[in-house]
Write a structure and sequence with these properties.
Blueprint: H1 9-23, H2 26-56, H3 71-102, H4 108-133, H5 136-163, H6 166-170, E1 173-176, E2 181-183, H7 184-215, H8 220-246, H9 250-267, H10 269-284, E3 292-295, E4 298-305, E5 309-314, E6 320-324, H11 327-330, E7 334-335, E8 343-351, H12 357-370, E9 381-387, E10 392-400, H13 406-423, H14 439-453
Antiparallel strand pairs: 1-2, 3-4, 3-7, 4-5, 5-6, 8-10, 9-10
Length: 454
């Protein structure tokens, strides 16, 4: 791969000294002072105006919580909040630039600041569009972890380009690694590129899931699994491309990995085992996001599936557990939504011996048909189980398409069955026991007690 000329570190200090000389010029200092004072003043004024706006319009100024009736007013309020500072700053610095030009003063840095403010305005409009169109928490997460760092990175590069020669300092060599010069540009591309690429792949995965859920009606668990595989594939591809662009030698990588393989094998054995297990789970499709499983005798729902570990939400108390992926290969796991999301549930009830068993079965089926959560197909069934000590026991079996509502449906059925039995004069008997007293044993007990009293 062709690389640009590697420069000596002395070039970096030469550019640094040139920048310091430029900053000492009165014309430059005057512009920087005007820019700084303008930005500070406009920040304070914008904060004051926003407080007044919130007092005047308290309903639409709370645009964090979307209101369908005030949707467009909230968007206008968000635009006012996000664009107030950059627009005021743009107007102020444009007026100062006009004054400088009228007096024949140098205004180059004021012009550059105006360009940066225009970039800032478009960036803030982009944020308002995101917040108004998508989930607030998701946008806020990627706003602070992707969009804001990326915008700041671009602005810093623009500022560096204003004051110095961008290409020169980025091709200055700082140290040698495996007989290869590592430049400042290599460091920036490696660190910044890896961060933005990995975070961007996560964002791409979320966008892909959103598009499929809105446009294509398909199995969302399968979509999430495919997008997760695609995400890690893109991460691996990006790392390879970035290292290739930087020019890291494959021989050097082989030497590093070969020397550390033994240490990694012993020290990170569990991590590697979980990683390999995660790959098998992904490609086999045995476990997918939103699956309902039973592990360690607790019913849980898979919330987040990763290469190293899986996050599940325990249904019993809504807590979350992070389970290493190899656990799903070493322990028995029951899944309720693997190939078929339907689950079978039943309710057992007793009826008095004076009842008509066919009538009881009919009532149980009527109760099941009236419950909206019980599936019509497969049909619920009811039958007599056994002759009990005090009652004839019956069982009502039914199907659900969501294993998470099993207890709620069972509770509803028990209440409805009790009302239906009462309405149809079907008695649920109490347990009955017959007590037999043998006189001979009773007389012997009395004789023993008399002897004791003597």
């Amino acid at each position: 791969m062709n690389r640009k000329v590697i420069l000596d570190p002395s070039y970096f200090w030469e550019e640094w000294l040139k920048t310091m000389v430029i900053l000492q010029r009165p014309a430059v200092q005057l512009q920087l002072l005007a820019i700084t004072l303008s930005l500070v003043a406009m920040f304070l004024i914008s904060q004051w105006l926003w407080r007044k706006f919130k007092q005047r319009f308290p309903d639409i100024s709370q645009f964090e919580e979307k209101n369908e009736e005030l949707y467009y007013q909230q968007i206008g309020s968000a635009l006012f909040y996000y664009l107030l500072l950059p627009i005021l700053s743009l107007i102020t610095i444009s007026l100062i630039r006009f004054i400088f030009l009228q007096r024949g003063w140098f205004a180059g840095y004021l012009t550059d600041t105006i360009d940066l403010l225009w970039m800032y305005i478009f960036y803030r409009i982009f944020l308002v569009m995101l917040y108004s169109s998508f989930n607030m928490k998701a946008v806020e997460y990627y706003h602070h972890r992707f969009f804001a760092p990326l915008f700041s990175f671009v602005i810093i590069l623009q500022v560096i380009h204003i004051f110095t020669d961008f290409d020169t300092i980025f091709h200055v060599s700082f140290f040698q690694l495996f007989d290869q010069s590592i430049t400042l540009g290599d460091i920036v591309v490696t660190v910044g590129g890896l961060y933005f690429w990995i975070t961007g792949c996560s964002l791409f995965e979320k966008v892909l899931i959103y598009l499929f859920s809105k446009e294509i009606r398909t199995d969302q668990r399968a979509v999430q699994s495919i997008s997760l595989v695609l995400r890690y594939f893109l991460i691996g591809l990006g790392i390879t491309l970035i290292f290739g662009y930087v020019g890291i030698s494959p021989t050097a990588l082989a030497a590093i990995t070969g020397g550390l393989s033994v240490g990694i094998g012993f020290g990170l054995k569990e991590v590697i085992s979980n990683f390999v297990s995660g790959l098998f789970l992904l490609f086999e499709g045995a476990l997918k996001p939103d699956d309902v499983i039973s592990i360690n005798n607790e019913m849980s729902q898979v919330k987040k599936f990763g290469i190293r570990a899986t996050t599940v939400q325990v249904i019993r108390d809504n807590s979350e557990k992070i389970i290493p992926n190899q656990t799903f290969f070493t322990e028995e796991v029951t899944t309720f939504t693997g190939s078929d999301p339907l689950v079978y549930r039943s309710v057992v009830v007793g009826a008095n011996y004076n009842c008509d068993p066919q009538e009881v079965i009919k009532v149980l089926l009527e109760v099941a048909d009236q419950n909206p959560n019980i599936l019509d197909y497969p049909r619920p069934v009811a039958f007599a189980l056994e002759f009990g000590d005090s009652s004839i026991n019956f069982e009502l079996k039914f199907w659900l398409d969501n294993p998470l509502i099993g207890k709620r449906v069972t509770s509803s059925l028990i209440c409805d069955i009790w009302k239906a039995f009462k309405k149809n004069d079907i008695e649920i008997p109490y347990p009955q026991r017959d007590l037999h007293i043998i006189n001979g044993i009773q007389d012997n007990n009395y004789d023993a007690m008399d002897m004791a009293n003597l």
